[in-house]
Amino acid sequence: MLPDCTNSSPGTGRRIIEHELTGTGIRYVSNPEFLREGRAVRDWDAPDRIVIGAEDYATAELAERMHVGIEAPHMVTDVTSAEMIKYASNAFLATRISFINEIAALCGSVGASIDAVSEGLAMDSRTGARIYAGVGYGGSCFPKDVRALDYLALTSGANADLLRSVINTNNRQRVLPLHALRRRFDGALSGLRVGILGLSFKPETDDVRDAPSLDLIRALVDEGISIRAFDPHASESARPHLPPSVDLVPSVAEAANRAQALVLLTEWDQIVQSDWQIVARCMLPPRYVFDGRNALDPIEMDRLGFEYLGVGRGSVRSSLPEAGLLQLVGPGLAG
């Protein structure tokens, strides 16, 4: 039996069976993994599902024996469907992220609170767990899998307008902080000092593959902005992908030192739980903070003297009467 525990694109297993394994007596199984970076060991020990794709019941039964003792729902299907389940799962999560980010943009336009809207959506059992607005997804899985399905649709003649919209929305989210800085500083960005908080595409990993931070930092440097960046674990992996002018520093306070603005891109505990009173003292006016993960408390940030802007949260000062809703904050979802 030839097991495939990787994430082969839909149709790969069928081509291997037809062109490589016919007449060999070797059986092929697709057993996709659903491990999240930063939680891989926990997901391995306690998966939320086990999917087995096989060509016959005997092969599927043999593969199922490998998972004896693991408490999780089991599903047996054909090889191509098992491959598609993995890709469709990532594409659906990416779609949810892009959807809430588009709703956040609408909230910003009409003065609604994305925190209240996302919390209200999560109360509906049909729409799934709460998801948070931010600067978009990254990593090795979501971007690759969405693009792969888009390409598969293109080459097979299927319609993938929704997937293309997901890709476009995610690309736009990455430069939201740039547009916000242009508005706040009236387009005069050359010479501005900005601290970047977080480089990895999500917390608990040093992975910067397709991280929003890389695209944004390059765009900011092109505008003449001076960048100091901090990440608890991803600085070394990010260094080869960043312009030489970017200073990588060992703390939030160092990133904030004499900066007029901060941009939070990864909701590490080491960043979110910083002593923001000290951070404020390190900065220069206007002490502007763009929270790209909606991970900070807007009311507290305002109290400490920051000019705070989240994704789809609108103006803090104009929203103070809704303090109860504005406190509905939390970490963003990533792949």
Record the SSE blueprint.
Blueprint: E1 2-4, H1 12-21, E2 28-30, H2 40-45, E3 50-53, H3 57-65, E4 74-77, H4 79-110, H5 114-122, H6 142-156, H7 161-173, H8 176-184, E5 193-197, H9 212-222, E6 226-230, H10 235-238, E7 247-248, H11 252-256, E8 261-264, H12 269-272, H13 276-282, E9 288-291, H14 298-303, E10 307-310, H15 323-326
Parallel strand pairs: 1-2, 3-4, 5-6, 5-8, 6-7, 8-9, 9-10
Description of the structure:
The protein is an alpha/beta fold and 335 residues long. The protein has 3 domains: 2-77, Rossmann fold, CATH 3.40.50.720; 85-171, N-(1-d-carboxylethyl)-l-norvaline Dehydrogenase, domain 2 (Orthogonal Bundle), CATH 1.10.1040; 173-326, Rossmann fold, CATH 3.40.50.720. The protein contains 15 helices and 10 strands. The protein has helices spanning 12-21, 40-45, 57-65, 79-110, 114-122, 142-156, 161-173, 176-184, 212-222, 235-238, 252-256, 269-272, 276-282, 298-303, 323-326, and strands spanning 2-4, 28-30, 50-53, 74-77, 193-197, 226-230, 247-248, 261-264, 288-291, 307-310. The strands form 3 sheets. It has a 6-stranded parallel sheet with strand order 7-6-5-8-9-10. A two-stranded parallel sheet has the order 1-2. Strand 9, helix 14 and strand 10 form a beta-alpha-beta unit. Helix 4 (79-110) crosses helix 6 and helix 4 packs across helix 7 (161-173). The chain is elongated and about 70 Å long.
